[in-house]
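hey all, quick one before standup. I had two proteins in the batch that finished overnight and I want to keep them in one place so we stop losing track of which output belongs to which input. First protein below, input sequence then structure tokens straight from the run.
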Amino acid sequence: SCLFTSKHNEKIASGLAAEFLYNCLKKSKRKSILLFTGDLKSALHASARDAFKISCATLGLDLLSTVDMKDNEEYFESILAETFAHYTDQTDGIYITSGFSAPLCRFLEAGGYNNIPFVAFDTYEDIKSYMKKGIISATIAQNVENQMKIERANWERIGLFDTENVTRRIDGKEVTKEV
């Protein structure tokens, strides 16, 4: 049994990212997108990739490649130069499904690539400056605290959230009742 889980809807987020990129590129002849994902061993990132592929196909965007950055900043930094050496001339837009976009932002800024529409994911301390500089065009911002409050309220409403049992589980004690 589990307590509960709360997450963003990766299919909607990926669809919004594709739609934003489409609108940025709709007057362009070429609409080639480079997708960076978090760890594809994660069902969430695999689902986000699949939803993005479908949205791209629906909107007439060409998905150049999916690059798994493994939700690891050091690994991500190590593959950026090679990735862009291969795809820079073909890339018209970028989407990243992970909140680990800082290495990509630094790379794009250092290379002067602030003319490529780029949809980031999440928010972090430097995101405003990257948006002001034109490195990031848009971001999908999830409100984790609000997501959890809504989910907890839903579970309480239907009687599946019992504060006493949650506390007992967290403390490693026996649960007094199962639902």
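OK second protein, same deal, sequence then tokens:
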Amino acid sequence: VTHELEHALSHRLVFIPTDDHSLRPGPAVLSILKSFVEQGGILVLQTPPDLLGPLTGIYAENPRRTRHRLSFRAAVDEGFKYLDEVEETDIQLASRRTPEGPWTHGLMGSSGASPIAFFSDENQAAILRRRHGAGVVYTLGFDLKDLMARPRSRRHFDAGRCLTGEFEPAGDVMPLVLR
């Protein structure tokens, strides 16, 4: 974990979370990030996509708390190829009994941005991938804390499928993908 962009870019995979307010990219930083990706780097973004439009290809987003399901198109991307069970490809974000779930952002991208996952309630993109040279940029329309930390602490908008000690897709799929 670092707040130094130079140090972060020395690794093959760089993750920039939603709450990292230190990154307000100007043209110079955008150029550095694009160069990193073009040379084979993988950039995973949760930042507001409007700040990084040239990298992500996202032109608009649709924030909501009423989405209940996240569905992966695992065969579309090599990073998601191990999601081959229904429990892994279709994740419940919130129970239908819960009117509001976690904040999510339906992503609308240019033709160069490919959807990897959808919010199946509305068929809006949840993860978009955009290739640049030898690398790739993934933009997430959700906060990883809502998919990883909430299910493990039983604060998951009544979305848990099991009570204890079992495979819980909402909390276990994203760590598998990020490895």
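Flagging for whoever picks this up: The CA atoms of residues 92 and 164 lie 17 Å apart. The first strand starts at residue 13 and ends at 16.
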